[in-house]
Write a structure and sequence with these properties.
about 250 residues, alpha+beta, Endonuclease I-creI, 2 domains, four-stranded antiparallel beta sheet, 8 strands, about 40% helix, globular
Amino acid sequence: MYDMPTRLYALDLLRTGRSMNSVSKETGISRAAIRSWQSRVEPLPRLNQAAPCTAPTDEASYAYLLGLYLGDGCISPHPRGGHHLRIACADAWPGLIERCREAVLAVRPGDKVYLLQRQGCVSVTSYGRHWTCLFPQHGPGKKHDRRIALEDWQRAIVDAHPWEFVRGLIHSDGCRITNWTVRNGRRYEYPRYFFTNKSDDIRKLCTDTLAKVGVEWTILARGSDPFNVSIARKASVALMDEHIGPKY
């Protein structure tokens, strides 16, 4: 880990016109580290001190953040202890980035959030000592290669706030599109929602919750793989529009 003066010194060298290679050789800092400091949208926060781990007080925000995490989130250990939560949000949806940021702050108001710009997306990131407690689904490897199941206390929150959970899933790995077909020689357009995820467990969490709120769904295979949950019936799309809507 490098302290802030070291980081600022390296960046100041770059601002004088020095190349990444020359700065790396002079300071002994890898080019990857220097490049990551250049791309930060907001400064790296200091890691919070340990505090007792408690259940989230804002359960609606947690249900939404849980959906985002299961879709596009990960948790990684921090060299100084604790962990960082990262949620990848596409640049195309600035409203999603801000909403994700707000959800993180609502779930852990004492932890700071910063935005890290990547190619085509922003990583909404928060450091703290309790993300593994709040998201016990974390683990090594990809989510679709391991079992994903909710704890009883998580299930209770999802049952109390099903639409927030579905919204998080759709905002991460879902979309609202307009399909079209030809009927009696005329073009007919209709809206449809999709949720796409390789994990059988995560898709089942999605479809079980959709069924509880009265949304009808079907599974569409991608080749031979049943990765897509489709919502196309008019009444169900109307429910989704009322509670979810398109990303923005």
